[in-house]
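request received
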Amino acid sequence: MSELSNMGEILVTGGAGYIGSHMCVALLDAGYTVTVLDNLSNSTSESIAAVQRVTNRTLDFVADDLRDAGALARLFGRKRFAAVLHFAGLKAVGQSTADPLAYYDNNVVGTLRLLEAMTAHQVRTLVFSSSATVYGIPDVMPITEDSPPGPINPYGRTKFHIEQILADLQATDPAWRISILRYFNPVGAHISGDLGEDPNDVPNNLMPYIAQVAVGRLPGLRIFGDDYPTPDGTGVRDYIHVDDLVEGHLAALRYLERHPGLAIHNLGTGRGHSVLEMVRAFEAASGRTIPCEIVARRAGDAAESYADPTKANRELGWRARHDVRRMCEDVWRWQQRHPQGYRA
Ligand code: NAD
Ligand code: UFG
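response:
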């Protein structure tokens, strides 16, 4: 597909968000021209400014909603995109259970509007941000792409429905080139310390929570259960540096150039780390003590979840490089420089 080889323009939906902003840095550094579409529902335009600062390059930022068909028609009418990297979506598991319709509307309907605009303008190369959440609570570790899907919350079901929509679309029109990337647990921040994860409220996820404890915004970490059948009793996850994750997307774009069709790949390191291991690694990186309290298990949590990344290693020629120490160091650099996130 010559368009990508010529470093064509890439549309990044959700490009102001945590992973999308790191993706923009990698794309600009690799020589692509980038447009971001983001409604800033879970981000600020400060991240776009940071992307431009660290790369010393500019991108085109469009502050519109994915569900706005008119806005998409105008955007696709004035640009010829080589591919779309689709990060935009809501991602809070608890919120999705409280308000499932908001999640189906934003994630599924938003994706439908995007696919309609892409179809109308003959843009048929897409990389979709899926999640290990589609596997639910798997019986067998490590998780391969053939492990049976079984999402257990509305957020996870939006991801699974979108995957099925993409498969149906590709089956009816073989010109589509679709990469579904199932992320494990993205953490880390850009090496500059100018770009990182900036949750709106109290973080739901472990790493930003620990970082806010270390910097003094939160008093202590509650560890959800120490009676799991894992080596130290706390939950085990496959934490992957956001820079490795975005490299996986560049590898997926290259793969799609050579392979029309639909492909699914796990993006993980293949290594699991427990909550206590992550706490210790963060203490070592930051030199701060993280006060911890063991509380009851969180509903819906698996004991362990880690990827078999063999398929991505083999087919995409990609593998995660950064270890947990590096993940913690980079998060700490970002958190220290931006104790209140971008809004400060
Ligand atoms: P994020 O919330 O930081 O970024 C998502 C961005 O999408 C935000 O900037 C938000 O404003 C934007 N957005 C949401 N709805 C939109 C809409 N209707 N129109 C336009 N923009 C919209 O989240 P993230 O961590 O960067 O995640 C990116 C993607 O990766 C999401 O699809 C998420 O589900 C998926 N994912 C994330 C994780 C994780 O742990 N961070 C794990 C697996 C998958
Ligand atoms: N944990 C705590 N205390 C906290 C937060 C988390 O003990 O305050 C524990 C959890 O119980 C779990 C581990 O830390 O054992 C990781 O929890 P996260 O919330 O960081 O990550 P999850 O694996 O539960 O879920 C995340 C995203 C999901 C996504 C999944 C796989 O929130 O949306 O990774 O990509 F589906």
